[in-house]
Amino acid sequence: MSYNSLTSLPDFLGELPSLQSIRVKGNFMEAFPSAYPSKLDLGIPSKFNFWDVKKERIQWDALGRTVGNLSLLLARDGPTAQDERAIDKFNFVAALLGFDPRVASQVHLVSNEKLRVNFDNFRHTTESKHASASFLFKKDDWKQAGAPEQRQRFLDWHAALANKCPWNTSDPKALPVIPMICGTTEGGAGNACGNGFGTSGTTDAGYYGSGTYFTSKFDYADKYTKEEDGIKWFLVSLVIPGNSFPVVEDPYLPDGSVNEGGYLGKACRTGYQSHLAIVDGSQANALSLKGETSISTVADELVIFNGSQVLPLFAFTVK
Fold first, then answer.
1. Neighbour count for residue 298 (Cβ, 10 Å)
2. Which of 60, 166, 306, 311 is most buried per CB count within 10 Å?
3. Of 131 and 25, which is predicted with more confidence?
C-alpha cells in the first residue's frame, strides 16, 4: 500500500492494526488495564476505528504476540497480513525520518486508547483556540524578537517537513501532525507508551526550553540515545507542533555564562505550543543555525511542553 494516497490522519491511524497487550514484563511499567472497550467513538468512520480491538486482541493473544505493555512485536519471518500492514506503516515513517527500517532489530506497535483520545482532544481544542483567539494562542511576536529572516527560515523548513505528510495537505485549517523520533531507554519507552510524555523525559535543562525534545532526523536522535546491553531504543510518535516559536538564541554567552535572553530551561513562550530550533545535526547539543538551513547535516529540535501533543506509534530497538 502507498500511504501517500491516504489523505487524512484517521486513514493513516486506521490502517494500523490495534492490538493491545494484557500483562507487563521486564522493565516496562504496568500501565494498561486488562480489559478494553470493543469500540471507542472517536468521531471517525467505523471502518477506521482504531480501537475496535476485542476480536483481534483475542486472536493475537492466542499467538503469543504481545510483548511488554507494547502492542505487538512485528515478526521478521512469516508475517501475517496484519503484520504486513504494520510493517508497511513503519517503512513509511522510516522513509520520512531518513533511516533504513532494516536497522531495527525489533519493532513494537504501540496502541494506547487514552493517549489517542488526549491527542485528538488537544488537536481539536487548539484548532478552536487558534481560530477564536489567535491573539492569545497563535502569536507571531517572533517577528519583533530579532533575526526575523532566520526565524522565518526555521518555520519554512518545518512547514516543508509537514507537507511531506499527505494528511497535512488535505485540510488547510487542521493543525499539522508530523511523525518524529526521539532516543530513549527501555524504561523510558514503557513509561511514554503507557503514560504519555512529560518533562521527566528530558536529560538536562534543555537548550531551547524545558520540555520533551523530538527531531525528524534519525541520525540526530541517535546521538542522544543511551546504549543498554548493546541495544538502543527509539520511539516514533505523531507530534502536533501547534504554533511554534522559532529559537535562534544560543543558551550560553561566549564567556560561558547563561544567556538570559535565551531559552535554556525555560517554559513555553506565551502564545505558542512549542519551541523550534534548526541546527547542524553533525553533533549533539548543537546550536541554532545562523545562516541557511540547506546544509546536508541539518536537523531540527522541536520542544513539546504538553504530553497530549504526542501520540507514540512505534518503539523499536537497534543493536
1. 18
2. 311
3. 131
**Can you give the pTM of this predicted structure?**
0.79
Q: How far lies 116's CA from each of 123, 224, 315, in Å?
A: 11, 26, 16
Distance CA 252, CA 140 (A): 25
Angstrom distance (rounded) from CA 50 to CA 52:
6
First-to-last alpha carbon distance for the chain, in angstroms, is: 28
Give residue 205's pLDDT: 78
> Where are the chain's structural domains?
3-99, 117-318
State which fold the 117-318 domain adopts.
Phosphoenolpyruvate Carboxykinase; domain 3 (3.90.228)
Residue pointed to by grid coordinates 501533543: 309
Question: Taking the CA of residue 28 as centre, how many other CA atoms within 13 Å lie in the half-sphere pointing to its CB?
Answer: 24
- The rounded distance, in Å, linking the Cα atoms of 208 and 302 is 9
Judge whether 264 and 258 are in contact, CB under 8 Å.
yes
